[in-house]
Amino acid sequence: MDKVTYEQLPELFTAIAHQFEENEELLCEMDSKMGDGDLGLTMRKGFCALPEVLRTMDEADFAKKIRKAGMEMTDIVPSTMGMLMGTGVSFGGKNLAGKTELDAEGVALLLEGYAAGIIKRGKCARGERTVLDSIGSAADAARAAADAGKSLEEVCRAALEGADAGVEATKEMLPKYGKAAVHKNVALGVADQGALAGALFVRGLTEFICGK
């Protein structure tokens, strides 16, 4: 695949939602040890709602459609992670202003916007054991690949490698925010569940564009 068109946006987000359906129990299990135990439920509910939101939305602009879908997600799942992920989608769409399809450069812009949205909403930074550690790493890798003239599929694969590396890096970080900070004594050696959620977003995007 060399581009994602306006018409394919619901299919793209269906592939992303599938990742959260498949990994709902894993995210809940991870979250039960470090948080409220409902992360999988929240992510499944939020992302599984987006394909239908996109199908029924009266918006002809490619970038605005993604931005508005993210805003809708923050209403559907108004939890901390729901707000972070919805804002990420929204800022990703905002960063695509002027584009009419998702190409190699577009994936880099989408993920850079996603990371910016998380920073804006969460007031967090890289290295603090959050979803930003996977999304930010994915954005860096996507940008490097796009600037090197790589294809859309190559950019996506690089982004996924970056996201997975970001998840792995959280095993050496101590949590700073929320209930996870209370359980910091058991955090070392364990991946952050929010970072994994970020990587699942990138995996869904990549598998839709590149195939499994």
Task: Put the structure in a nutshell.
The chain is an all-alpha fold and 212 residues long. It contains 9 helices and 2 strands.
Q: In words, what does this structure look like?
A:
Helices cover 69% and strands 2% of the residues. It is an all-alpha fold and 212 residues long. Strands 1-2 form a two-stranded antiparallel sheet. The longest helix is centred in the middle third of the chain and has 19 residues, at 104-122. The model has no long low-confidence stretch (mean pLDDT 94).
SSE diagram, text form:
Layout: E1 4-5, H1 9-22, H2 24-34, H3 39-56, H4 62-76, H5 80-95, E2 101-102, H6 104-122, H7 131-147, H8 152-169, H9 193-210
Antiparallel strand pairs: 1-2
